Structures are given as C-alpha cells and as structure tokens.
Amino acid sequence: MNTGKLLSFILLLSIGFSSCEKKSELTSGNVKNVVDDAVTRLYKTLTPAQLDTVSENYLLGFFTDEEKEILATKFWTFDANVPVTVSLMRDQGQKSMPFWIKESGFKKTGLTVKNEEYTYEVWQKNFDKGSIGLGINGFDKHRPVYFISVAPQKKQDKLQITRVTPSQYPLDTIDTGAFTYHDWDGLVLTEVPDELKGQVLFTTVRGRAREAHLVNAFRNTKTPSSSVPDQIMLTWSDDPKTSVDIQWRTNVSVERGRVKYWKPGTKDTLFADASKFKMEDRLLQNDRYVNRFTAKLKNLSPGTTYSYALATENEKWLAPVAFQTQPDVNKGFSFIWFGDTHYSEIWGDMAKKSLKRHPETAFFSIAGDLVTTGLHRDEWDGLWNYSSPVFHGKPLMPVPGNHDSQDGLGAWMYQEMFSLPENGPGNQPKEMTYSFKYQDALFVMIDATLSVPAQKGWIEKQLKNSDAKWKFAMFHFPPYNLEEPYDDIRKDWCTLFDKYHVDMVMSGHMHYYLRTKPMLNGKAMKTPAEGTIYTMSISIPGKQEQWPEEDYAVVRYPDGPLYQHITMKDNTLTYKCYDPEGKVRDELVIRK
Question: DSSP per residue over 60-79, as a string?
C-alpha cells in the first residue's frame, strides 16, 4: 500500500459505527439509520444463537418496503445534468449479489474490469438527468466493494456531476493505472474496456462493505463492561512532569467518573472529575454501548509518587494505584516498547513479565497494530484484559498501525481509547501523530497510515527545534525490511532523520525482528554517531515464508515474541531486546 495517497479526512466517515447513540427513526432516510434500527430490532427479536444464522433472505423479509427502498437508493447518490449510463463494477468473487441491482434495472454486460487481485463484471443502466441513487454492497462484508463509472448517453453532452454522497472520495477518470480504493491505492486497474476509458470514476474505500453488514456479523466480548471501572490506563497529553491522564471503562449505567489522588504519607486528598464518552459497537451483541472516562490530573509536582483511586457506585473507591511524575532534572530513565501486539494473550503475558523485570521503566510504547480489527471493540477489550494491570501505573504512549486504522474508515475507536498530545500536524487528525519529551529525550510519534508528505514539515519542525540529547521516532511501517521499500518514507522522513540525527527509529508491521547498522542516505555506516539505527519488532509468534539476506542488518530473528528495553543514563544509551523469559536476544550500547 502506498500510504502517501491516503486521505486523512476519511477518518470520520459518516456510515456508522458512531460514537454516540442515534435516533432510530428514519427521518434522515439514510443507510446508517436503517441498519442501526434493524440491529436494535434484531436484538429484541432473536436469540444470540439465531443472530448467528441471519441470512440475506431473512433480512429481506425483515426490512420494511420503505427500509429496502433506502438500502437500494441511498448508499451512493449524485446528480447528473444530462442523461447518463452508469457502469457498476461488481467483484465476481462476491457470492451473493446485492438484492437491488437486478431489481432496479441494471443489466449484465459481457465486459470485465480487472486489477491485480480481482475481476469485476460490469452491469449497466441508463438514467435520466437529475438525482441518481444506488444501493448497498450487500449484507455480507465483501471488502472489494463495487465501484462505478458514469458517462453521458450522448457523447456530445458535457457531463457535470454534483451533490455526491458520500462526498469524502474524489471523482477520477477510469483507465488502466487508476486506483479505486483509497485504502489500497497501490491496487490499480490493469484491464479496462475501451468503451469505459475516460468515464468519470467514483473512488471509494473497502470499509464501505461494513455499512450494511449483518450476515455473520454479530460478535461477543469475553469481558463485557459493568458498573465497576476497568480497562484502567495512564497516558500523557501534557507535560509528564506535572500531569497524567487516567482512562477507564464502565457500562452505561454509570453517569459520572471521579478520581481522588494524593501524595502517600500526606493528608491532602484532591479530586478530579472525568469527561465521558459513550462508545458504540453496534454488532457487539452483549455490550453494544459502554462509557469511557478520561480524567486529566494537572499541577502535579515533578519527580513525585502519587496514589490514585477511581470512584465506584455510591462514592466507594477501588484499591489505590501509584504512579510517578517525571523528575525536573535529568536523572536517567528507561522505557519499554513493543512491536505489533494484535490483542494477543501471549503479548499480555510478556508485558506483565516485562514490568516485573523492569519496575523502574517510566512508560511503555506500542509501534502500531495494537489490535487486528480497529473497529471491533471486543478486540480492544481483549487487549486491555490480557495486559491488566500493566498500564494502571505506567503510561502507554502508542502509535496506530494499519490494522488500527482499517479499510479507509480511520481509527476513531483508537482515538477514543487514548488521551494523547494534540500537538501534531495541523492538517491531520489529532492524537494520531504527536511528540513528547521525557527528560533529555524527544519522541516523535508518527501515524504512518496517514499522508507521508503532509507530515514532513511537522516532523522537521520537531527535530529542528529540539535540543534533546536523544531523539527517537516511532511509526508502524519500517523503512528497512525484506518486503516493501517504502520509498516515500525514505524520501520524506529518513532524509530528515539523517539531517537532524535521530538516534533510533522503532517500527513493526513485518512480523519479524530487525536491527540495522547505522544508516545514512541509505548506506550503512560504522558508528551510531554517523547514522540512524532502524529497529523493528514483533510481540507475537511470527513466521517468515522467505528469509532473504538484508545487507544492512546486524541482528534478525524471524520469530517472536520479543520486547525492547532502552535505558539512558548520562551520555550512555543501553538497548536490549528480550524474550518473554528474560533472555537477552540483542543488545547495543551507544555513547555520546
């Protein structure tokens, strides 16, 4: 995937998986409201076992005629100023054809359109000028969703297309070399019939397959919410010396979140109210809605141990937990980072062991792909359940990966899980790319699933204006690996790492472990002072089908799980990679 072309503004796609409960009435007449209302009725009508057997035939009998009309006409709408022919490209691999295609008068042609992965059959229909509406991709979750091209019926007519909904996706021209999915813009069309070339192409994202997903769709969480706070986690959105953010979850019966905190050994107890966010995963049948709370503690004393407790019902309090603020002098510190965690129980066990082995660590980081499907809250529930209580007293400062921001729908669930600095690029979503400083180290945390060139200026500003002794960058896609060159990252970001001497880059994604030689302008150098060291890790078992040589590599392992512990003291950085049982698998010392 060429990440440089991804559109950041598709993060808030209006199709659903909304962050708040919507009215079930069909007043707005859109697909989301119809499906939301249907899910609510299905929960009331069917048992959990029956939900697993819902079929398309059942749904077509379940929806009213009014609802089916909306499902058949409100998925994609636009206006044409002249009579047009709409060509609909439907993946031949989709087992069940969307119910409305034939019913609405589309006719199958003998034409096909191809890319490197899929073959699409072409269906066509003539429309008069005016408003045109097309239907859902189906009740399954067939990811290569259909796309369309539009042409005037009379070649001499000058076509104008307006009022396109959804409006997030630009119109293009269909031809060989064009891409159809913004979340996979490297997948370009390889075969286009001559009669379609030059027509207006409606681009889309594969995530639209989820808009009416109801067949084999319902899930359960193993750890549903309750009135007792859980999924407790610390982060920083402000200065680590004087603040900390505490996040947790309850069921929706709890309306208020409250924290008390104090310095052990003193009688002064402070209180902070938390903000509340109602999160919905409409297909999570045993825990559709939860409340997530965030309390931001301010004006703390640097270098101080605090205890805090969360309020339960009737002002009862959970057992206290301790955390430490950053010292206001550089005393040295350590941190731990993980590669892809994918909500794994294996990773959770390793995380617990790492904290027990290194209790002094100041914080943790994860280099993306925290879960496998970022819009499935049950996977987030697994992530927090398996790692508890690691992040109760130690902040977690992550970056998202492609699995956290999936199918072009963005990472709104990731964003609502974390309270992170909002100091990232102004033209990008907040809390996805950010930076923070801890003692004498700068951490530039980058969302590599967003536009690479759009973040270049911000990255340079962070590095150029920093007087930190140690500089780190973390993002998901590794510039050095055995599969994908990531030329855009090397061109726009690695040149900055060279210019301002970033000490180490930390990544994941490829599911193996790698530490490179110090790299400068794509060439291996002899000492860390001459270049940047690129590291990549994996927190779960991995398997490499091919294992070619990488001449820039110092240490490689094809398998995990592994974690990395980095300590900085005075002018010395000590890097060690451990397996879960504490065996050192790689180590490096850098002195300045």
Answer: HHHS-HHHHHHHHHSSEEEE
DSSP sequence for 224-264? ---SS-EEEEEE-SS-TTT-EEEEEEE-TT----EEEEE-T
The answer to whether 145 and 209 are in contact (CB under 8 A) is yes
H/E stretch holding 463 reads helix 456-464
Q: Which two tokens stand for residue 247?
A: 């996040």
Digit-coded pLDDT (tens) for 210-235: 999 999 999 999 999 999 999 999 99
Q: 111-122: b or e for each residue (b if 16 or more CB lie within 10 Å)?
A: bebebeebebbb
**pLDDT (tens digit per residue) in 291-342:** 999 999 999 999 999 999 999 988 799 999 999 999 999 999 999 999 999 9
Question: Which among 230, 207, 268, 241 has a CA at the least distance from the CA of 17?
Answer: 207
Alpha carbon distance 572, 591 (integer Å): 5
Query: What's the rounded Cα separation, in Å, for the pair 261 and 269?
Result: 6
323 closest CA partner among 343, 303, 341: 303
Yes or no: say if 258 and 271 are a contact pair by the CB < 8 Å rule: yes
Distance CA 167, CA 76 (A): 10
Sequence-separated (6 or more) residues with CB below 8 Å from residue 53: none
Q: Is-contact 193 113, C-beta < 8 A?
A: yes
DSSP notation for 315-372 = G-BPPPEEEEPPPSS---EEEEEESB-TT-HHHHHHHHHHHHH-TT---EEEBS-SSS
Name the pairing type of β-strands 305-310 and 258-262. Answer: antiparallel
Phi-psi region of 246 (alpha: psi -120 to 50; beta: other; left: phi over 0): beta
pTM value surpassing 0.85: yes
Query: Which strands, in side-by-side order, build the sheet including 244-250?
Result: 230-235, 244-250, 289-297, 275-280
Helix (H, G, I), strand (E, B) or coil at 486: coil
C-alpha Rg value of the chain to the nearest Å: 26
